[in-house]
Design brief:
Elements lengths: L1 H10 L14 H11 L61
């Protein structure tokens, strides 16, 4: 009878030791993620070359005025507006470089 009593106490775990699964280490998580990943073969899209094809060069069929709006020139005259001056209205002298 004594032997069976000892056997029961050895099998019983303390109440504070819950059956929580062991937490994975960071290397285990990374290795698991690497195993799930797969490589995908990619290729750049093919663009055929044409000798006559010009965007904005001298041989372009487009008029120079029809350049896209992202291309513009910025001159000093753009900053001579009243909005670009300080509230005091004083004109600032240019910086020496």
């Amino acid at each position: 009878m004594q032997a069976s009593k000892n056997k029961n106490t050895k099998e019983a775990e303390p109440f504070y030791r819950l059956s929580v699964p062991k937490q994975k280490t960071s290397s285990e998580i990374i290795n698991e993620a690497r195993n799930v990943l797969r490589t995908v073969r990619t290729r750049r899209p093919f663009t055929p070359t044409e000798d006559q094809r010009k965007l904005f060069g001298s041989g372009s069929l487009r008029a120079p005025q029809s350049r896209p709006p992202s291309v513009f020139s910025l001159h000093a005259s753009s900053f001579d507006l009243a909005e670009s001056r300080p509230v005091s209205g004083v004109r600032l002298s240019p910086l020496n470089h």
